[in-house]
Design goal:
Layout: E1 2-4, H1 8-19, E2 25-28, H2 52-65, E3 69-72, E4 75-82, E5 85-90, E6 94-97, E7 100-102, E8 107-108, E9 124-125, H3 128-131, E10 139-144, H4 146-157, E11 162-166, H5 176-182, E12 187-190, E13 193-200, E14 204-211, E15 217-221, E16 224-228, E17 231-232, E18 263-265, H6 277-298, E19 323-325
């Protein structure tokens, strides 16, 4: 079994497949994904407060305890040269497996301005639902376009003392109801504006803006900035392998199956409308159980809850013989 991705969906999938006795390899660029963008998560069941880093590392340790192994690399191609065999190609090697779970998430689109990278997780956020409660009673800005940006404004206006909505156009681009809902006493629209720089040392302190119409400059004092510029789906290498929607997301059914038999998908990279860590984890479990049933079926053995292996945690990490060329 190969799992592509090392965040909520991928790590949960790896835990479940390993625990069912499948030889599991996780290929990922890093551990944690978008969860690492926040210093504190307050909406994951079982944890009133936990850092994204700590939560994802607990996921990883749990998967490793049942035998999952990890390779830190980027997947660039997925081939199926023969029945019941998949070849996953990375930048440095090739790996073969009976089934594949794609769980590498989506990447928020950056603003691409000075200060952004340095202050990620220290006032720069890409998820109002995740991090909004951390800014209760504070002053924040939302930078973005369309419905997602206005959704963030509406959510934050119920938490923050002041919300600035910064957008390039003369008026917000969204339906009238969303715009009307955002017009609240503690919300201020900042039209015709772009961010030049995010200011701060240890945390965000201000935004430096430019007006695209008259060229004037201004500064907003804020405690945090929520960037809603959409997401980048790096799924081009999957075109022709599995079915994608117009956004480049992998289309799955309720069993986390893709259009290609033996390939499953979970988490933010799929067409599920809700992008949350707990939802990704649940989808990872579904994908793993579906993949297990698939593997058992092609091996000629009927899979059921009664005959799944009860695998105990391993005391020592064991490497898996996945590499076929290097």
């Amino acid at each position: 079994m190969i799992v592509v991705g090392g965040a909520s969906a991928g790590l949960t999938a790896a835990l479940y497949t390993s625990r069912q006795g499948l030889n599991t390899l996780v290929i990922t660029k890093d551990i944690g994904g978008q969860a690492l963008l926040t210093d504190e998560i307050q909406n994951y069941p079982g944890f009133i407060s936990i850092s994204g880093f700590e939560l994802m590392n607990r996921f990883k340790e749990h998967a490793e305890a049942y035998g999952a192994t990890f390779v830190y690399d980027e997947v660039v191609a997925l081939d199926a040269p023969e029945d019941s065999c998949f070849v996953v190609k990375t930048r440095n090697a090739e790996y073969t497996a009976t089934a594949v779970i794609l769980a590498f998430g989506k990447t928020p689109r950056d603003l691409g301005v000075p200060g952004e990278q340095e202050l990620k997780g220290r006032g720069v956020s890409y998820c109002a639902v995740c991090d909004g409660p951390l800014f209760k009673g504070k002053t924040v800005a939302v930078v973005g376009v369309g419905e997602p940006a206005l959704d963030a404004v509406n959510l934050l206006s119920g938490l923050a003392k002041k919300v600035y909505y910064v957008f390039r156009t003369a008026a917000p681009i969204a339906d009238e109801e969303s715009i009307a809902n955002a017009k609240r006493e503690n919300v201020e629209f900042v039209p015709n504006s772009v961010v030049n720089r995010i200011v701060g040392e240890k945390t965000v302190k201000a935004l430096e803006l430019s007006n695209v119409r008259d060229g004037s400059h201004s500064t907003l004092s804020v405690d945090g900035v929520f960037i809603e510029m959409g997401y980048v789906t790096k799924t081009e290498f999957l075109r022709g392998v599995v079915e994608l929607n117009s956004k480049g997301e992998i289309i799955v059914d309720k069993m986390a199956q893709t259009s290609r038999e033996g390939v499953f998908a979970a988490g933010d990279v799929t067409d599920t409308p809700y992008k949350q860590a707990v939802i990704s984890a649940g989808m990872g479990a579904v994908a793993a159980l579906s993949a297990y049933n698939y593997v058992q079926r092609i091996r000629g053995r009927h899979a059921s809850a009664q005959d799944w292996k009860k695998v105990k945690p391993k005391t020592q990490k064991q490497s898996a013989p996945f590499v076929i060329t290097e």
